[in-house]
Structure formats: C-alpha cells, structure tokens
Specification:
With about 140 residues, the chain is mainly beta. It has one helix and eight strands. The chain has a five-stranded antiparallel sheet. Strands 2-1-3 form a three-stranded antiparallel sheet. The mean pLDDT is about 95. The protein binds zinc ion (ZN).
Length: about 140
C-alpha cells in the first residue's frame, strides 16, 4: 500500500446530527420524532419537515425495515472506494416510515429483492464514526 492512501470522505457532525452519530456508536439509529404532530424524520434537521415545529425528540428506531430499492455498484465512484466494489446500495424503508440510503453488509447480491426485510447493523469505519448499514434477515 502506498503512503498516499486515499481516504474515504467521513460525515461531518453538526448540532442537529450529533445525537445521530453518538447513537450509532452505541449501535442505535436515532430518528427525530415531532412532539407536536408525530412526524418521524431521518435525516436530522432543526425543524419538523411537516409542521416546522422545533419540538423534536430523538428516539431509537427498531432497526427493522425493508428494501424499497437497491443497486449493485461495480464501478467505484472514486479511488477511495476501489477496494469496496462490488457493493450494494440500498434504499431502506424503515419500520417507522422514513426512507434512508444505506449499504448492504455482505455481498449476497443474488438474494436482493424489493420489499425484503433488513435489519440495522452499525459498522465502525473510524474511531469516531459508525455508519448505519443493513443486512438481510
Ligand atoms: Zn411536526
């Protein structure tokens, strides 16, 4: 490996998303619940996307969802991902309602299909960052 290893871009935290990243380090996917209208949202924002309330509370998701759509990536989007291909990108519909783009743990691509149940699996990618991936149930 060369000394100039290209690193993958890491997410940056802010006041709205800090709880999300902290939760993932504990194996939890935190979703924002609006205390005024009940809307559940992912990703984190300062306002409810439905009623614009600031009265948002973080609650852990069940970690269960289903595949709304997916794609298997064979050509890396950049040099930092060359070692990862092929991998599957998932659009997961969480049990709580929000959809999130994520990634499949493993490479059982032939088993992928729409509406298949998946479960959360946090994957540590650095000392400070765990990402929410999903595995087939
Ligand atoms: Zn709301």
């Amino acid at each position: 490996m060369s000394e100039q290893t290209i690193r993958k871009p890491l997410p940056t935290t802010d006041g709205d998303s800090q709880a999300l990243w902290d939760g993932l380090k504990e194996g939890k996917l935190l979703l924002q619940h609006c205390a005024d209208c009940g809307h559940v949202q992912y990703y984190q924002q300062s306002l409810c996307r439905l009623c614009q309330s600031k009265n948002l509370v973080h609650k852990p998701a069940s970690g269960r969802g289903k595949i709304h759509s997916y794609s298997v990536v064979h050509r890396a989007p950049g040099p930092a991902f060359k070692g990862d291909v092929p991998y599957a990108v998932l659009l997961v519909e969480l049990e709580e309602g929000p959809r999130m783009i994520s990634r499949l743990v493993g490479n059982d691509f032939d088993a992928l299909d729409f509406d298949l149940p998946v479960k959360l699996q946090t994957v540590k990618i650095s000392d400070d960052v765990c990402l929410p991936y999903f595995s087939l149930m």
